[in-house]
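Support case: S-adenosylmethionine complex. Customer-provided input:
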Amino acid sequence: MVPGPMPRLPDRLGRPLRNLRLSVTDRCNLRCQYCMPEAEYAWLPKANVLTYEEMLRLVRVFVQLGVDKVRLTGGEPLLRSDVTVLVRMLAALPELRELAMTTNGILLADKAAALREAGLQRITVSLDTLDAATFRLLARRDDLQRTLAGIDAARAAGFEDIKLDTVVIAGVNDGELGALLDYARSVGVEIRFIEYMDVGGATHWSPERVVSRARILEAIGRSHGAITPLPRTDSAPAERFRLGDGTHFGVISSVTQPFCATCDRARLTADGMWFTCLYASEGTNLRDVLRRGASDEELLAQLRSVWIARRDRGAEERVGTPDRRPLADSAALRQNPHLEMHKRGG
Ligand code: SAM
Ligand code: SF4
Ligand code: SF4
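Agent response - structure generated as follows:
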């Protein structure tokens, strides 16, 4: 056993590790243009995918390093069979202040109540459009109604902190911001608009397709009147705003105003690769360390040594890059599929 909790460990830029995004599978039942636009993907070999016991073991060690928030993601996390079993295992860890999931909502109608009962606290559903034809174009599946039913089911299951995430793409869904905001308000959940990022996997990204924070706020100001910024309370990436009628919404300006200075997040892929930045080209293979039979102390020592050396500022470093292009083209992704957002977990 690892000895009791230790003080939070700062990286080279003074940032502690608090948040772990745990990708439970790289499979997905959508093919969003901004994430998986290619015709084919190489999936992680099954034998490499961590079992729930292995994930729990790693999370316990991350907790020793200071992690107190875990978000399950993917790929589509609800495609992993019996993911409620993992939720229950993690919910039993007293050190975790927050256990959350990001999902596209397609399978949520059937699973929301069980997830809630297993101890999931917060849920974020990705919803980019309310128009069935745009959904088909954007996600290449005809599943808008299932996503909306999933949001209803999450509300019915009693989730109090439901959020919607919308990636805004010029010429695709940027005309719908007001309608999405009205929908979120009508179902009593908060929506966040995300700038389209040039992350690994986003091979169709171009600067012209990014709708900046400034343009998002202008569009909402035009449709919904005065916008008041709310004070920031933590290191969460979303800047929050209030409308005249009290509705809150968020903007995540990862491209135009990145928030690397306060980034306390790390990502673990379903096959146990640990990345300290969404844009990092190299990760640490924790699966091999784990399966070699390392003790918790050895794992912890490895995590500490990686975190204290961390200098990542991936999004900030890309600001102002001349002729900015996607992080990786299709050939680079075939060479290194771990660069993909659907492997790394958003
Ligand atoms: N499949 C789940 C979903 O879509 O909610 C979870 C995994 S997905 C990779 C997590 C988040 O990453 C989603 O909210 C998605 O919108 C976001 N994402 C993926 N590619 C993106 C990009 N190029 N720019 C901004 N956000 C992106
Ligand atoms: Fe879309 Fe999420 Fe699947 Fe990526 S992982 S294609 S964002 S649903
Ligand atoms: Fe954190 Fe990297 Fe994203 Fe910056 S680019 S906020 S360091 S994950």
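The longest strand covers residues 161-168.

Case will auto-close in a few days if no follow-up is received.
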